[in-house]
Amino acid sequence: MEFFKLTPISxxxxxxxxxxxxxxxxxxxxxxxxxxxxxxxxxxxxxxLILPTAPxxxxxxxxxxLPAWFDISEDIEETVSQETDVEGMDASVKAVAELIEAExxxxxxxxxxxxxxxxxxxxxxxxxxxxxxxxQAVVAFSGFVPMMHPRxxxxxxxxxxxxxxxxxxxLDPVIPINLVTDGVSRLTCLDTQxxxxxxxxxxxxxxxxxxxxGDFLKAHLPIAQRDSEE
Length: 230
Fold this sequence. Notes:
- It contains eight helices and nine strands.
- It is of the alpha/beta class.
- It has one domain: Rossmann fold (3-Layer(aba) Sandwich).
- Strand 4 (56-59) and strand 5 (64-67) form a beta hairpin.
- It is globular and about 50 Å long.
């Protein structure tokens, strides 16, 4: 899997790693400003940002090959409720897990957070609940909870303790908010540690979302809290 890294803004502090997964049809470069935005709105300057790019695959919605973590149907409700490409999801989770393992071997003392936008958010959630012992938190922007995936048939005790930040726009026309709240409710019923935020926006990011993400990271990663206050 191709990816590129952005070193922390501050190189004089201990850092943590954020692996961020892009949305459908994009690539890792779409989020090259994410590090600066996190610093601008939350003053976190010690994040090592890794931006993988999904492989090209045939996507039915567009009837052509695009960078995609998994295939989707034209009906987003069908994609959310039936998980028509579990095989594609699992392949992406495996690739991301291998990247996490490589980072852990290279820097065993550096905490890792997995996150993503839209399709990337789905894979971030699946990766987190599949490998909860390897990461410190999960972040999901403008995606959905893949509750029909076999992974969610049973949640381990370790996975239940994993901090999860889910954020979504109430005006999102791509993935309607009701599809997200249903998944969040089910995760809550499974006694997972989910923090859910909504914003008056469409399928995008906003400053308040970035600030709230910063607060979440500071709450669950002591290294982010300590370094941002120095």
